[in-house]
Amino acid sequence: MSDQYIAAPEINAYDRIVQNTQKRHRLFSVHWELTYRCNERCTHCYLDVLPPGARVPGELSTQEACDLVDQIAELGALTITFSGGEVFLRSDLFDIVDYARARGFAIRYYTNGIMVKPELADQIAATRPILVEVSLYSADPAVHDTITQIPGSHALTLRAIDLLTERGVRCMIKTPLMRENIHDLDGLRAIAAQYGIRFAYDPTVVSKHTGDPSPLRHRPQDDEWLAFMRRTVTPETWNIPPSDDHFRFCGIGMNGMTIGPLGDIYTCVGARVYAGNIRRQSLADIWHNSPVWQETASLTLGALPVCATCELQPFCVRCHGAAAFEDGDLLGCSSIAYREARLRRMAYHGNMVSAD
User: Fold this and answer.
1) What is the pLDDT of residue 242?
2) In the sheet where 171-176 sits, what is the strand order?
3) pLDDT tens for residues 289-299?
C-alpha cells in the first residue's frame, strides 16, 4: 500500500463484487503461506523462517493442499495468493498451482525472486498469474543484500524481474518502508519504470509474530518520517476518511483469510487471529462457524473506544495486528499508528499552509 487513502470517484464492477462479498461474508480471496522455509534471512521479516533445506513434516502434503483448493472453490473464492517463506521452495508448488488454475482460480505469487532462472520463469509464465509481487528493498545492492543477509541477492532479484517481464508476466516491485530505504524510493521507482511495472511500498514494519521486536529497529525515526510525509501527504494526495462509527481501517474478518503451512486458518496476515485448522475441521465449518469472523468483522470505528474519540483518526493507518502484538490489545490504541498519524497530520497541515 502507499501512504494515502485511495478514494475512487466511481465504484466499478470489481469494487461492487468485493463490497458484496464483504457484506455477505462470502470468501473472495485467500493468502496461502505454503511454507516458512526461505532462502533469505531478511532482518525485518515478521516470520521466524526456516532454512531452505529444513525438514518440515507438518507442512500440508500435495494431496492435502489440492483437497483444500477444492474446499476454497466450494466457498466461492476467486483468487489465491501463494507466498512463503519463499514459495518456490515447495517442490510440488506447480502441482498445487496447476490444480488451482484448473479449478478456475486467479493466481498471484509473492517471491524474493532469487530462485528464478529461465526454466522456472517459463513455468511461472505458463500458470498465467495475474501478478507476481517481487520484494526489493533498495536500489543500492549493498543495502538490499545487508537486509536479506544473502550476498548477490539484489542482482538475482533483478534477474528474476527481467526474466519474468521478458515472458510477459505482470510483475510489481514492493518494499516495506524502512530506515534503510526511506530516502531511496525514487531509486526503486526508477527500477520499476525501467521494466515498465508498478512499484508499491508499505509503511508497516511489525514485530515477529513470536513477539520478538527485533524487526522494529528498521522503523524510520520521527525526523525521517516527517521529512518523507512532507513530500507525500498533501491535501491533494491524502483523502480524509469518513469519521463515523461504521468506518473500517481494513477488511479483517469480512471476505478473506490466511492459511498457514500446517493448515492453520487466520483472519489475515497482520492480526493472525486463529480460526481453526483444516486437519480438524472442514474449511466450510471454520468459515461459517468460527466466532472470530464476526468478532473481527465488527471492528468498525465505533467498536474501538480509543480510536473513536481520537483527534488523529483522520490521519491514522491502523493495523489491528500491531495493536495486538505490540500494545497487547486488539481493540486499543496502536502506539505506532498513533505516532505516524501525529506526524502525518503535521505534514498535512504544513502543506496546507504552504499551499496558501
Assistant:
1) 77
2) 198-202, 171-176, 131-135, 106-111, 79-83, 29-33, 256-259, 264-266, 274-277
3) 999 999 999 99
